[in-house]
Amino acid sequence: MDSLKNIPALKSKWLSACASMVASWMLRFLLLAFPGFFKRWLSDPMTLQIEEYHGMSSRNKFFDALELYLQSKISPSTRLLKIAQTRKDTSFGIHFSDNQEFDDVYEEIQLKWKFISISKESSHTTLASKKKHYFELSFDFKHKEMVMNSYLPYVLERFKAMKDERKLVKLHTLVRLDPNKVKWDAINLEHPATFGTLAMDSELKRSVLEDLDKFVKRKEFYQRVGRAWKRGYLLYGPPGTGKSSLVAAIANYLKFDIYDLQLTHLKSDMELRRAMVATTNKSILVIEDIDCSQAELQDRKYGKGIKKNESEGNQITLSGLLNFTDGLWSNCGEERIIVFTTNHKSKLDPALLRSGRMDMHIHMSYCSYEGFKTLTSNYLGICGHHPLFEKIEILLQNTKVTPAQVTEALMKSEDVEVSLQGLITMLKENRYKGKDEYRDEDEENQLTYFI
Ligand SMILES: Nc1ncnc2c1ncn2[C@@H]1O[C@H](COP(=O)(O)OP(=O)(O)OP(=O)(O)O)[C@@H](O)[C@H]1O
Ligand SMILES: [Mg+2]
Fold first, then answer.
1. Which residues, 6 or more positions from 98, have their beta carbon under 8 angstroms from its beta carbon?
2. Locate the AAA+ ATPase domain: which residues (predicted)?
3. pLDDT above 80 (res 309)
4. Is the confidence metric ipTM above 0.95 for this complex?
């Protein structure tokens, strides 16, 4: 009788067991049938956006780092790659297509990158800037700390290592996008100059190389003495003596990018500051022909030969530049080299030559016999002696020709005899020519150290 009484209780137990079994089957079925939906439902996504530019015109350096880093994450099964070669580049570059996705794994965290390109609505934009580009990084919110503090620094480290491996050196120049906006535009530096190919006094070359080596090794020293980790060089000498080639040789030697700062492209000290702040560490800021820039800036300031509306708004000054290079700018980065070049050191503002401003004054001068031998080894492949060398050595002692003039003569023929004879004729023609406007500087020391 008792067991009959328990029948309803047993029945409800049985029913609830059946119901929970059906529910678990259904859940299993749904999980198997729609895994994506459940994964999304269970996770708590977080997204970071990395835009190409931040502010008005400053390029986002992390965006540039991603462009290289993510090339290593392109899936081998990718069926669409955009290849481009700009007019100025000699090699092909991979460009990402809109909505291209990249998977990455870091410390077992799944990360998803996406490249996005959207049209901008502005009347002032150039063809290249009509689009806004950015990367999106998606991951689970619970990994936020790990991504911010560990993964992003890791991406930067990888980028630096990849850049060093590829030995990419960039040349950055200023381009004006609209009346109020300038930005740095970069191309690969294809300048072949190295210290080996430069016709330069060997003692001077050795001193410059030693100075560069010492500079890059002295991080702790600069920190200890509380100085900004920067070095300034003034390169001076007649046109065609290798000042620009020396800048390229330094960049190739240290693998530092070059920022070619054309002061006359800028309208105000504010623009100058923005452009300088946008330069990266391990870079060379070059201001070529500083005497000409200085003169033009003076003209603009006082309106000499310049229409009123052209001079308006141009408040860029040499002292503004020097204060900034000596002060805040040099302190907000590391391993910065600043180079001024000029044909006429005597025409420079004394403020620029003041002791401590430029660490080294390097005089690039006319072609010596030693320089000539470097050039014949490069251009004609002559490593030893040649019967015509003695004549050339005597001629070079009395003739002021630049290495550029010598290379021009050496390139005229592939026949060594013809080339050297052509050079002898050129040297004879130039032997007693005209007044030397660079004589004062030529009599100075080749190298002046300040620190
Ligand atoms: N010292 C040098 N060693 C090797 N090649 C040189 C040297 N000087 C000049 N040349 C050759 O002449 C060309 C012009 O030289 P470069 O532009 O470096 O001279 P520069 O001193 O910067 O002249 P400028 O004052 O006109 O700017 C170089 O591309 C190179 O081929
Ligand atoms: Mg030059």
1. 115, 116, 117
2. 229-368
3. no
4. yes
